Amino acid sequence: MAAARQAMNKNTSINASERVTQSHPLTKSDKQVKSKKRVADHGEVFTAEREVNAMLDLVQQETERIESRFLEPACGNGNFLVEVLRRKLGVVDGRYSKSQTEWERYAVLAVSSIYGVDILEDNAQECRTRLYKIFDDRYNSLFDSKCKVDCLKSVDFILHSNILWGDALDFTNPVTKQPIVFSEWSAVNGSLLKRRDYVFRFLVEQSHQFSLFNDEGEAAAIDEPIKDYPLIHFLKLREDDTTQL
Ligand SMILES: C[S@@+](CC[C@H](N)C(=O)[O-])C[C@H]1O[C@@H](n2cnc3c(N)ncnc32)[C@H](O)[C@@H]1O
């Protein structure tokens, strides 16, 4: 891993990974309150680890299903999401640690199943950083110098797509007012990933299942992806490639 990290540090084009690994050294968050103002303005009181675990135990089977998707619409700095990733990676370790390729494939899939939104930009960033660090530490402890920069770049890319700065009440970015869009990642034939983008508002409205009907009285197609990408190898995800798709 030291070799992989050196390579990442030398390569100045890996801006996304540097953003994740360097801008927020914070990896563990014990504090439940950052400031009185943030509590007053945004109700920001983070859930303690004991409660997080007790709540996740209620859906234990899902937290241990590698591809089971979790979305937290007010994720804070990620107390629930980091524990979900920890549990999923525990399953990946148990099943696949003897094969690096298999471990990478399923560990990346685990990361791709985790989604979050927070109205405070620093929370979304901190959440990404903590998730990245959990992946990086586990990968490093298993495969050390054989860790691949490409794998870390894919994880970084997915985290920037899945953990977003946004208002979960009006479904937009608080500053740009652009609609929040999430990517769905699905494994195809082992090493390929299918990416489809969906508008967050429509996903929520669909799950509330109201009667949205079109002119013919049929269910309106609000669950259609707004963008459908070609298949891509799970180790080849990065900003330069995907913006061209
Ligand atoms: C009570 S904290 C919970 C954080 C995290 N879920 C946890 O349990 O540790 C509430 C979080 O919701 C965020 N928040 C408040 N209003 C929001 C909104 N409209 N959209 C998205 N996030 C919001 C706050 O910034 C804060 O991080």
List the ions, cofactors and other small molecules found in this model: S-adenosylmethionine
Q: Mean pLDDT, as a whole number?
A: 85
Q: What is the alpha-carbon Rg in Å?
A: 18 Å
Largest sheet: 4 strands, antiparallel
Q: How many helical elements? A: 11
Q: Please mark out the parts with pLDDT under 50 across 5 or more consecutive residues, or reply none.
A: 1-27, 210-215, 241-245
| β-strand number | 7
Query: Can you give the helix content as a percent range?
Result: 40-55%
Category by helix and strand content: alpha/beta
Tertiary shape: globular
Tell me the strand percentage band. Answer: 5-15%
Give the SSE order as H and E letters: HHHHHEHHEHHEEEHEEH
Distance between the first and last residues' Cα: 30 Å
Compact summary:
With 245 residues, the protein is an alpha/beta fold.
Task: Please supply descriptive tags for the structure shown above.
alpha/beta, 4-stranded antiparallel sheet, 3-stranded parallel sheet, 13% strand, globular, binds S-adenosylmethionine
